[in-house]
């Protein structure tokens, strides 16, 4: 089933308090504009809908017999995660070789493969009915509070090098 903007809006309303708290925290702590964060949320929510819609229209969410793919089947989820992983691996190769993409030669392969990663993630989130946009905003806010994400801690002994 293809989610539409009304469903996305309903999910936004259901999570509005948490997301608004995250937006306000990011704005207050880091001077990130509330308007910019709202645009980010809306953009991601719309991208999830568009990517999933186009994947459905292209037949990626129906079985060979025409029946819908069963998202309750754990192998479907595992397959989608493996496909995302394969795109990440292709992006790594693109980055290693610094070559133009074979399908879009005016762009670097790493750029196109990272686009494929994002498209697959957005499509899968759409198929699962996930509020990826809200989760991104909340995770950005959470990461700003993490000690192990602060430059001084990262530079210290046993800090995260990458």
Quaternary structure of the protein: single chain
- How much is the average pLDDT? 85
Q: Outline the biggest β-sheet.
A: none
Rounded to the nearest angstrom, the distance between the terminal CA atoms is 39 Å
Quick tags:
mainly alpha; 162 residues; 7 helices; 0% strand
Describe the structure.
The protein is built from seven helices and no strands. The protein is an all-alpha fold and 162 residues long. The chain has one domain (5-155). The protein is globular, with a radius of gyration of 18 Å. The model has no long low-confidence stretch (mean pLDDT 85).
What topology emerges from the helices and strands here?
Layout: H1 5-14, H2 16-30, H3 34-57, H4 74-97, H5 109-128, H6 132-145, H7 151-155
Helix pairs in contact: 2-6, 3-5, 3-6, 4-5
